[in-house]
Amino acid sequence: MSKKTIISILSVLIFIILTGCNEGSQDPTTEQNNTIQVAVTSDSGANKLDATSYEESMQLYTAVYDPLVKYGENGKIKPGLAESWGISKDGK
């Protein structure tokens, strides 16, 4: 190899090494946005009444909100946000 080729290769290697050692601008005082961003494949369907848009809406709601009750093993209802519940004497 010629001297020119070796110098060129060494220059590129040194440049790559020095670029990799750069810490960049990491500002520790950056504020958090506290925003959830969710990518969806279609309209959420919040303004529609058809059943096909219900699935997308429920995926968003369940990602953000906890339910009052959840389904446990064998389909039994277990507490979510609600700690207890019951049926009134008049059945309403």
Structure, described:
By secondary structure, the protein is mainly alpha-helical. The protein has a domain at 36-84. It has helices spanning 3-20, 54-64, and strands at residues 69-71, 77-79. A two-stranded antiparallel sheet has the order 1-2. The protein is elongated, with a radius of gyration of 29 Å. The mean pLDDT is 78.
Give the strand tally.
Answer: 2
Q: From the alpha-carbon coordinates, what is the Rg to the nearest angstrom?
A: 29 Å
Give the oligomer, counting copies of the same chain as homo and different chains as hetero.
single chain
What is the typical, i.e. mean, pLDDT?
A: 78
Order of helices and strands: HHEE
Q: Terminal Cα separation, in Å? A: 91 Å
Q: Give the count of helical stretches.
A: 2
Proportion in helices: 25-40%
Q: Indicate the low-confidence ranges by residue numbers.
A: none
Strand content: 5-15%
Descriptive keywords:
single chain, about 90 residues, mainly alpha, two-stranded antiparallel sheet, 2 strands
Please write out the topology:
Blueprint lengths: L2 H18 L33 H11 L4 E3 L5 E3 L13
Antiparallel strand pairs: 1-2
Short characterization:
The chain has 92 residues and is mainly alpha-helical. The protein is built from 2 helices and 2 strands.
